[in-house]
Amino acid sequence: MKNLFCFANNQIEPLEKAGVPLGDLMVQRGYGIFDFLRVQDNKPLFLQAHLDRFFNSAAIMRLNIKESREQVIELVNQLIQKNNIPSSGIRLLIGGGDAPDGYTITAPHLIIIQQPLTAPADYLADTGIHLVSYNYTRQLAEVKTIDYLMAIWLQPWMKSLGGDDILYHNEGIITECPRSNIFMVTADNVLVTPNTGMLKGITRNNILSIAAENDISFEERPIHLQEFASAKEAFITSSTKRMTLVRQVDAHVLATSNDSSLSHILFERLLKKERFFS
Amino acid sequence: MKNLFCFANNQIEPLEKAGVPLGDLMVQRGYGIFDFLRVQDNKPLFLQAHLDRFFNSAAIMRLNIKESREQVIELVNQLIQKNNIPSSGIRLLIGGGDAPDGYTITAPHLIIIQQPLTAPADYLADTGIHLVSYNYTRQLAEVKTIDYLMAIWLQPWMKSLGGDDILYHNEGIITECPRSNIFMVTADNVLVTPNTGMLKGITRNNILSIAAENDISFEERPIHLQEFASAKEAFITSSTKRMTLVRQVDAHVLATSNDSSLSHILFERLLKKERFFS
Questions:
Q1: All residues at 6 or more sequence positions from B91 whose CB lies less than 8 Å from its CB, including other chains
Q2: Which of A149, A159, A180 to mutate to test the interface with B (most CBs of B within 10 A)?
């Protein structure tokens, strides 16, 4: 693999030389946030929306990013030019900074990493995934923190049930998957997605915009796990994967999607939106 | 400050040169555990108990420490000799390892840091602290993970209420403070401490042993916040601070401790135990 450059320690430097100082609160206390966006044909996708969220996460977590938004954009563009990985992912990352007392937020250091990433397929695969539900709400769920403790810890359990991913719920009310949002199409063709207790993904927002722009009925509302029993379609969304169909949630097997389904229409519109914004 | 050595990247190296690789799951996903012990007169205190817990945390988190217990002890001793900081703290730290997919545990790297630490006073200060309660249970509470997201995030809120530390509870049943365990002495002189939902601290275990060895009545049981209204004494315990008296929990102001109190007796025995084990 060719040598990659990242931004760390206030400079653009080789990725293999960079590290997070051992005194940083990210290392000592797991206190950090990030954002992740896809680069397609050397262009960052929905960069403004990702920056909005990154700076918002930082503000909620009281992390003072010393770089301006314009400087972050400039650094992202420099890395894209220098690394030249047309299909890749960019991770913005910031922790609590070097804390002499190991506990108090100081001056956080921005880190930007770019790494190769296979672009998702340009069609919506009909083989859906199997979600297994777990009663858990992320801490500060509306913030994109680095806290994936439960998600990673639960992997063997999830696999033992034949699951492909986890669906978090709060006493039966679904919220999100560890790295994606969830949508359902009800028996009467309404697109629904949870309204609280989760991270509002950039792709989630794009899907909702597409629905609004195309007169597709949609609702953001509490959804009970039992509703999958009567759901026509379901899919999860993320910047990395765009959309992935869901074929099963726990014991509920959904109808197989077909090309005329709402999921496919939304997927085509999402592709168009990507092209428009890149 | 003199140059300190740590163990990182499989070698003893200068602390300021060491860092956690950007691809480690500790950085990318907050997936890591640690332990922290005090060094007094260049001797590690209760090292065996801390190693028991560290290896146990690692096992629960599926982190395979490639160093044997004997090798870890040898590394700790080498750092103590090389750094020569008679009063200090040693942090053992391990994350999920460098994950090409940013999600799957690989080969974790052990990190050992030694830093100066002012030894706690050899007497139990009568000025107790003020705890403010917060409804929250740590994820995988019995494991010493690096997850202090809520503790750090809550600091401004805690200070706005005049608090010195936070006391977590689960719907009124107290569990622990973010970095210490809690004990209470009831009106009828029984020493009580929570039995579930928290990390079992080394000092907590020492206090319970001391109670057992000295025929002091004690119980590990669920404790409701309201019990502080009638409590005679309360204190928190940690390896760093030994014991700290509590004078107030929310609106409940406790009676001032005096030298004949049970807390003082336990403190004197704890000092003896330290001397015996070092």
A1: A28, B34, B35, B36, B111, B112, B113, B114, B115
A2: A149
Question: Are β-strands B242-249 and B129-135 bridged in parallel, bridged antiparallel, or unpaired?
Answer: parallel
Of B30, B104, B156, the CB nearest to A146: B30
- Side chain identity, residue B85: I
Nearest to B28 by CA among A89, A161, A74: A89
DSSP H/E element including B277:
helix B262-277
Radius of gyration from C-alpha coordinates of chain A: 19
* Structure token digits, residue A94: 């910031």
**Residues B166-200: tens digit of each pLDDT:** 999 999 999 999 999 999 999 999 999 999 999 99
Please indicate whether, in this complex, the C-beta atoms of B103 and A150 are within 8 angstroms of each other.
Answer: no
Q: Which of residues 78-107 of A touch B (CB under 8 A)?
A: 91, 93, 96, 103-105
What's the pTM? 0.94
B216-249 pLDDT tens trace: 999 999 999 999 999 999 999 999 999 999 999 9
Q: Which residue has the tokens 């990013």?
A: A65
